[in-house]
Amino acid sequence: MAEAKRVERPLSPHLQIYRWQIPMLTSILTRITGHALYAGFFLAVWWLLAAAISPEYFDFVNWLATSWIGILVWVGSAWAMWFHYLTGLRHLYYDAGKGLDVPTAEKLGWACLIGSVVLTALTVLLVAM
Amino acid sequence: MRYLTDRKRAEGKGSGHAGTEDHWFMTVSAVGLAFLVPVWMYIFGKALGQDHATVVATFGRPFPAIVTGLLLIVGMRHFASGATMMIEDYLRGTARKMAIIGVICLSWATAAAGLFALVKIAL
Questions:
Q1: What residues of B are in contact with residue A67 (Cβ under 8 Å)?
Q2: How far apart are CA A39 and CA B95, in angstroms?
Q3: Site from A45, A59, A91 to mutate, B interface, most B CB atoms within 10 angstroms
Q4: Taking the model in full, what pTM does it have?
Q5: Where are the domains of chain A?
Q6: Fewer Cβ within 10 Å of end Cβ, chain B: N or C?
Q7: ipTM here
Q8: Confidence of residue B5 (pLDDT cuts 50, 70, 90)
Q9: Domain boundaries in chain B?
Q10: How far apart are the first and last CA of chain A?
């Protein structure tokens, strides 16, 4: 009975329907970076655990952590961290009921995108020096 | 006639049936992490690439050890909660339950491994 009458219902808007815009892109990136950060966290914990276990084991993990793959993970994690950090602060600002109008939200999104790149560059510089 | 007041019926509800508890936890941990993360990134960044003795000496000092310990617990609780939220959005039924249990176990295990390392380095 439930299947007796099939009606063509309008589909509610979703990712493939919406036109891409900055608040939407930065919102999705917040979720992606938050979860991707686990990789950096895992490598850092492994590295620390190796330091606690033995100098020989540390040498192996440290070699991996300072190889080009390791560096890629750290720089990627630094960017993900700063992006997630800035959008997290933005979330707190939104929660206070502020910055929710479209022009401000667009500006805040750009601030998160540009700010994360700048902060990542500064972090790499500070750490490498 | 309904004997329950509107407030009583709303209590403990919401889409996650947990009210605003999770949201509030994420707010508090986010503020905590806002302080912990930059400090830890500096400590870790400076220690990375050093030899074994320097790394052990760094994380054996009180301040780096306490910041790392706090980051492990607060960071992994924040991650577990965020990952649970994502799983609740995309998975249903048994797969959802298994994924949530898995992610909570993974975050506790990661935090425990890091804390063990800190204790072993400190002793």
A1: none
A2: 22
A3: A45
A4: 0.87
A5: 22-128
A6: N
A7: 0.86
A8: confident
A9: 27-122
A10: 72
